[in-house]
């Protein structure tokens, strides 16, 4: 369980790093930032609110939340707001480029840490897998459509889209995949090489 909370806390902090880089955000963060400009709520609070709204979309998809789902909502909201308070704004371009690179690296690492803990999907991942099962479409297509929709809505609301958005889309998956073998939880039987699990 500590691995889950560490991973989620790092993920929330990495989102804050990317926000402070001001070079473009991931699609869901673009949405959250866009919403922030039209409400009195903080970025982290909106991350949680959006997570709860997405969770409601699980109902017709017959998805069931787990402990990890709830932890995802709470920890991301708190850790992203904390990161935004700790990281200064209006930095120079070189510092922002460093934040972008470091944020993407930390984001990929944190995904590997919390997914590897195997406590269940977060709201957004559950929406993706549930929609895939309900429509019979490929996971890749469903995820792409969801991400494009969130990006478009967030951009229309004033969220930051830029080179960082493209770099995030290209790099976070390979980064998470690189780190995943280091953090993937294995049961005792898996560690002992049970042939039935091969």
UniProtKB/TrEMBL annotation:
Query: Upper lineage ranks?
Result: Bacteria, Bacillati, Actinomycetota, Actinomycetes, Kitasatosporales
Q: Which InterPro entries match?
A: YczE/YyaS-like
Highest taxon above the source species = Bacteria
Instruction: Indicate what this protein is called per its UniProt record.
Output: YitT family protein
One matching Pfam family: DUF6198
User: Does the keyword section mention Nucleus?
Assistant: no
- Residues spanning the membrane: 40-59, 66-87, 93-117
Q: Say which species the protein is native to.
A: Streptomyces inhibens
Query: What keywords tag this UniProt record?
Result: Membrane, Transmembrane, Transmembrane helix
